[in-house]
Amino acid sequence: MTQETTPGSGSLVEVAGLEKSFGGQPVLRGVDLTVDRGTATALLGPSGSGKTTVLRSLNVLETPDRGRVRIGEAAIDFSSLSPDKGERRRAIRALRARSGMVFQAHNLFPHMTVLGNLVEGPIRVQGRPRDEAIAEARALLEQVGLSGREDAYPAQLSGGQQQRVGIARALALKPEVLLLDEPTSALDPELVGEVLAVIRDLAAQGWTLLIVTHEVRFARDVADQVLFLDGGVIVERGGPEVLRDPRQERTRRFLARMLEAG
Amino acid sequence: MRRVGPSRTLRRVLPLLLLGVGVLLLGTPSAASAASAAPRPVVRVGTEGTYPPFSYADPKTGDLTGFDIEVIRAVAQRAGWDLKFTKGAFDSLFPALDAGRVDLLADQITINPDRSAHYLFSTPYTYSHGVIVTAADNHDITTLADLKGRTAAQSQTSNWTQVAKDAGADVKYVDGLDQAAALLAQGRVDATVNDNIAVLDYLATSGSKKIKIAGSAGNEVSKQAFAFRKSDTKLRDQANQALAALTKDGTLARISQKYFRADVTVPNSGKVEVKGSDTGRSTWQVVKDTAWPMLRGTLKGTIPLTIVSFICGLVIALAAALARLSSYRMLDVPARIYISIIRGTPLLVQLFIVFFGLPEIGIDLPSFVAACLALSLNVGGYAAEIIRASILAVPRGQFEAATTIGMDYWQSMRRIVLPQASRIAVPPLSNTLLSLVKDTSLASVVLVTELLREAQVSASVSTRFMALYCLAALYYWVICYIISLGQSALERRLGRHAA
Q: Is B497's CB within 8 Å of A103's CB?
């Protein structure tokens, strides 16, 4: 089901018929989703359901076996990849340039300062003037509440601070959509709040967000759209109210477990 | 004790300086062949430098001297040559001549049928005979026939070795007479066969009472002459003309009298008297006299070899490591084979292949370059696996993070992965560097004069093995100690971002 949408009509991200197997084991079995510009989408599901694989397919950290991915005007159809290596590489780079990624384990560059982590992409990849990149990086650090920590190394920060730097680093490239892969799962419970607050802030400012998360309450508060993934397909989709009254039995069971644990 | 760590400026300048020395040595063009039409051709002379009284380092000045050296200098003056001496172990002399690294050999080369078939000889300038040397308390060996079934220590390519073998001796190979004598004194071998004069000189110099001349090695007079490549008739003819003139004007006789109180340049010289090339120096004096030549060997040989080989080796290693990590079989397989060969063969064999083997297929490199090439390839093979492991030790997420901010493979490597891998690689690569410092001692077999070679040169004259080799050990240790200080500083610097 490929509904043709032109950019500007609202749908920024579009995934259709995504399939992926690992070692013969199917993980994604035809995932379809759209994310509208300026909205926050929460992707939920039990572990092993393929949420992270969906997210990593959007910037081709995983290469899907079949299916189509579009972000803005950049699209790749993995069912009919170009045989030309250079062309394939250009298409992947164009797609990647439109998203920013926040990792579960932050993956900050440990040998660079906080500021260095933020300006690396803008200066080295986008070729932006150094002064401009630094000024923007400082503004981003202020936004995530880390003014004054420009010269610290990642190892000198707390887990929550590290993840906020990770978010700022992804934003520094001015992506069209921010992909967040379980941004709070690796954090100590008392540090989760500060990171969620930053994400909530981004949603309020109109960033387009796609968040893989286990935080059901947070998803209910922030998400405009909720997708529930199980067994490699999306089994439930809708507004945040879906989380109060799921139609599917397995969604209901999963949510009950998560709310219990959370 | 002086502080070992050099000043900060020196630390910065020294590597550049040493690199400069290396480049200079690399850049030295191999001397023009004597056959060229240049007015004063440079003739390259191969000699041991460790065979007193024929070819050795003057104990007082450290300069190359000896009977053969004075004769070839007199010849050069007559013939209008400029000389350039290359010192190497006896067994590397003929290969060096074959490979075109030297133009003639001046090292008491005895004429025999085998050699005459492959080389040109000048007219002889020494007539002598062979003697059998044994431990002083050995009374079983007096003639060649007694050597049957006994062990004899000999240089591999010496004609005396053939004499010993023909007599049925079980030959153990050594680098020269001084080592053979040491083995005799220690009772590790039964005998050695060598030139009468050389043995007399050794006895006079060392004052050794542990070994003696036990008998004559046959009655044949052996004739020694300069050896040339078969094709160099012009050079040989020039040498012969000069020798004839020097015989006529008495120069050869005078040089011989100076060394042997007899004229060994004609047959039937009568009894030779050897005063010994080195007598009366105390061990301390020997050490003092050798300290500078060894430092020179360190600065001109060991250190430039180490620096050039390590830098080139790291470049090779990085390329090989990336090839190993590549998903292209065309890159991975050759890198695997290269690493396997380097790690599966002795460095000495690699040196021999590069230095003596490559000229046979037309690749003729100067000594220093050949040594650097072999050592670089060796370092490359070992360091490749260290670098590969270090890259793999950088978490996968780092590469992914670099990818998501838009970096391509090379940017990710250069900016993100390699800086982190380098920190992991510093301790094991330092080990490689320390090994390399010591491995450079093998370069002496391909005629590079480095630290250990200088120690050997001095030891051959003075026979003070213990003191000189301990001094050499001290030099190596100091170099390695300085490197380990550098390692600590580098680790601190690369680790500054760790909490």
A: no
C-alpha B387/C-alpha B325 separation (Å) is 10
What does residue B447 show for φ and ψ, rounded to 5 degrees?
70, 20
For residue range B293-336, list pLDDT tens digits in order.
Answer: 889 889 988 999 999 999 999 999 999 999 999 989 999 999 99
Interface of B with A in 43-62 (CB under 8 A): none
Contacts of A154 in chain B (CB under 8 A): 497
CA end-to-end span of chain B, whole Å?
37
The answer to whether residues B277 and B63 touch, using CB atoms and an 8 Å cutoff, is no
Q: Is the pLDDT of residue B270 over 80?
A: no
Task: Cis check for the bond before B267: say yes or no (omega within 30 of 0).
Answer: no
Kindly give the pairing relationship between strand A208-212 and strand A177-181.
parallel
* pLDDT cut 90: percent of chain B above it: 48
Q: Minimal Cα–Cα distance from B406 to chain A, Å?
A: 6
Contact status, residue A38 vs residue A208, Cβ threshold 8 Å: yes
pLDDT of residue B39: 64
Kindly tell me if the per-residue pLDDT of B104 is higher than 70.
yes
Residues belonging to chain A: 262
Instruction: Work out the average pLDDT over B57-85.
Output: 90
- Looking at the DSSP bridge assignments, the partners of residue B104 are B45, B228
Task: Give the separation between CA B92 and CA B193, rounded to whole angstroms.
Answer: 20
pLDDT surpasses 90 at B437: yes
**Sequence-ordered list of residues with C-beta below 8 angstroms from that of A24, at least 6 positions apart, any chain:** none
Tokens of B132: 């059998």
The pLDDT of residue A56 is 95
pLDDT (0 to 100) of residue B114: 84
B411 CB neighbours in chain A (<8 A) are 124-125
| Secondary element (H or E) of residue B213 | strand B211-216
**In sequence order, what are the beta bridge partners of B105?**
B46, B227
Give the per-residue pLDDT at B203.
84
CB contact under 8 A, A101 and B404: yes
DSSP B378-424: HHHHHHHHHHHHHHHHS-HHHHHHHHHTT--HHHIIIIIIHHHHHHH
Cβ contact B374:B354 at 8 Å? yes
Residue type, A182: E
Q: Which of B231, B241, B234 is nearest to B119 (CA)?
A: B231
- Asked if A96 and B406 touch (Cβ cutoff 8 Å), the reply is yes
Rounded to two decimals, what is the model's pTM?
0.74
What tokens were used for A228?
């529930």
- This complex has an ipTM of 0.91
Taking residue B274's Cβ as centre, other Cβ atoms within 10 Å add up to 21
The pLDDT tens digits of the residues spanning B337-366 come to 999 999 999 999 999 898 888 887 888 788
Round to whole Å and give the CA distance between B283 and B206. 12
Positions in chain A short of pLDDT 50:
1-8
Note whether B404 contacts A156, CB cutoff 8 Å: no
CB pairs under 8 A between A and B: 67
